[in-house]
Sequence to fold (131 residues):
Amino acid sequence: MKDIIVDDFQDTVNDVLFRHKSIVDVMTKLQESDARLNRAIAKAVTICGCIKINAQKQDFPEDMDLEQACQFTSSHIEGELCDDCKEVINQEMQNHLFYLAALCNLLDINLYDNMLEEYDKLNTLGTYNLL
Ligand SMILES: [Zn+2]
Fold:
């Protein structure tokens, strides 16, 4: 069922993408959408203030195994997104997904198959995938 949704999404992106059909346009629009997504997150911190970023070095004993170490790591996010910021970030993520699907179309890559391959890799390798 989900594969049909992802495939339909990719097909729909292909149908509506006529203005930016060039790989150059899609590459730069994807990069732009990534920057806009990061900007939306930064604005949640610096303009709205619903979340804060409190980052420092992630310290844990070297003899600790990876699964234990994961329990000591932090997202460095304090607070929760307000509805307005969440809506803006959602929109920017959707825009980013649009251009990612567009890139897949131009390079003849199936987005669902790609996600499934990564999903399988994550399940097989687990936390060791992060090394
Ligand atoms: Zn906010």
